[in-house]
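FIELD: query
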Amino acid sequence: MNFPYSKKWITVTVAAAVAITAGSVYAADNKTTANTAAATAATTTTETAAASTTAPAAAATTANGAANAAATTAETTAPAADSTQASAEAEPLSLDKAIAQALKTNKTLQSLRIQIDTANTNALLARNSARHISNDAIEDISQAQSKYSSPAQAESTKRVNALSLKNTENTTKATTQQMYYDLLNAQAQVELKKQSLTRSQEQLKVAEAGLKVGTKAKSDVLQAEMGVAQAQAALVSAENTLKTSMMKFNQYIGVDLNKKWVLSPENKQLQPISMSLQEATEKALKQRVEIIQAQEELTLAKLNYDIIAKYGSAVSYAGQKANNDIDAAELGIQEEQDNVKLDVAQAYYNLDAAKQTVEFTLKAKESAAENYRLTNLRFQNGLATTLDVIQAEEELSTQENNYQEALRDYNLAVVSFENSLGVPQTEEEQK
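FIELD: result
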């Protein structure tokens, strides 16, 4: 039996995609400020010259000083104004707001809603056609199926379509959360790379100072320069990843690719799983749309067999085929149940492992930070080489990255586990 939008019927594909631009409105305003200040200075010069013709040089000097000061002020404030303008263009975005936006404008979801509306219309037409067939007019199996099977299939299709839409919306929510956390991680990686660069630059300053007073060798400076260069390259790579991640995120939620956001930190709280694996499995078996769809197939297969047995022959070719459809539907339910059990178990164990990984990587990061601090002190006192410090800094950077990625993985594991449980049905859907 073929019904739209079951596991066999729908394949939900996701594609996902910020080039950040900055405005320069305030630069023009600052230029105007500079011109006004210069004009004011010139006026002051004229008045001074008229009052005292014996000091033209002093008046000219005053005018030039005022104009130069105004110009300097404009140059100093322009970058800050540009930064303010760029920040103003970026909108705040929470995880809940991102999910709402995706449910509204995700193109895959919009297309599915159109397809479901068309399928529901076709099912309604089939049901209305069956109403015009009277019981007395039924003379063969084909007419009986049109009378009884078609309305039942129409109702089943409507229920399955509603479940499929809800399941796809749930998948859209989960994917939006995953991309949101990936974007948060990309932002955090940029900040970590900046911190690493700052440490490398400080190390270079210490090496250069030591070289000047004769306590460090030229090789120490060269090694420190190498560390700075590596940190700069890592920062550029992280910034590029952030830009492309932002564009993919925008593409998925269905907004302008160049849209800029200020994301809110949304880390899940580390806590034990609130239910046992058995409880989670039982909940999923009741809520997962794949099992409900398989059960609908079994119901329709049995109805079709009953119609053939009543208006034809159960031992006929059609009867044997209908009986085989029942067996296949029952096997389909068992297969879906096994798939759900495996999916829930995997998500459950992944979540537990992710929680422990966060705890372990936090300890490793703290140890690496303390090791870097002590190694740096030893270097400043001539007890460690530049290479020792570089290696300690690299290890600290690695552990910081590991911890950040562990946090991201834990957030994603929570999302995956929640998604594996399925979506609760409303009373209307259970009828």
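FIELD: remark
The chain has two domains: 25-90, 92-258+267-430.
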